[in-house]
Write a structure and sequence with these properties.
By secondary structure, this protein is of the alpha/beta class. The chain is built from 9 helices and 6 strands, in the order ααββααβαβααββαα. Helix 2 (50-69) runs antiparallel to helix 5 (153-171).
């Protein structure tokens, strides 16, 4: 068995394969941890369902995407970041939450939505009965802009091409929840009046099979608590739509 494995590896190296990854080899904090509902390695071989195999494959592809681009410097944001902030949550989710860009705390931890805005989002999700670990959450830009400024159109487009488009292709969500105008603009390709357009589903020009749902960014709500009930109502509407997907 050992000799056959060694011969196979040598043949693959001759064909140009330099590195080999396991779909469950996910050491980075950007990937599943003990508290999340993901496939875990086991000392015993166990039969896996098609759903588990699909989830493992998505993890492998996301890890591959991260490894390929973790040192990306295709825009100016790489000069001020501590690290790339990739994703958190379930790659097999029907919903993908997309924000603007990492903040200070996210830049430190390498994980999206862990600062004040993320903690507030967690509370709202818990209140409406949507588990944070059951969703996929990321940002348009993976690097923190200096001073938490809004990313430029060039920075957004660059990260959209390097990361976000490929994330959507891998995860294949049924709906993308755009948290704030910046995230919505990345997909719609135009300026968005979030106060007028929030709370509604829209066609997705980039991914016609995936709907867009627009609402406020939780950081905006922290500055404008009068909109807290509106934000909660928006997420309840989204959850109701997700419930219909589970029934059908």
């Amino acid at each position: 068995m050992e000799k056959r494995l060694k011969a196979t590896l040598e043949l693959l190296r001759e064909l140009g394969f330099e590195e080999f990854y396991s779909s469950l080899d996910v050491p980075s904090s950007n990937f599943p941890t003990e508290g999340n509902n993901y496939p875990k390695q086991s000392s015993k071989e166990q039969p896996t369902s098609p759903l588990e195999d699909k989830s493992k494959n998505k993890l492998f592809l996301l890890k591959e995407l991260y490894e390929k681009n973790k040192n990306c410097c295709k825009c100016e944001l790489c000069k001020s970041r501590s690290q790339i902030v990739f994703f958190d949550g379930n790659p097999n989710s029907k919903v993908m939450f997309v924000g603007e860009a990492p903040g200070e705390e996210e830049d430190k931890q390498g994980k999206p939505f862990v600062g004040r805005a993320g903690q507030y989002l967690n509370k709202v999700l818990e209140k409406i009965g949507l588990n944070r670990n059951s969703i996929y959450i990321t940002n348009v830009c993976k690097c923190r802009p200096p001073g938490n400024r809004k990313p430029t159109p060039k920075e957004m487009q660059t990260c959209l091409n390097v990361f976000l488009k490929k994330e959507v292709e891998i995860v294949q969500p049924k709906v993308i929840c755009c948290l704030g105008a910046t995230a919505a603009e990345a997909f719609l390709g135009k300026n968005v009046k979030i106060t007028r357009m929030r709370g509604q589903f829209y066609p997705n020009p980039l991914f016609p099979k995936t709907k867009l749902f627009l609402t406020y960014h939780p950081a905006y709500i922290l500055r404008n608590m009068r909109e807290a009930k509106t934000f909660e109502a928006d997420l309840k509407k989204l959850k109701e739509y997700l419930n219909t997907l589970e029934i059908n």
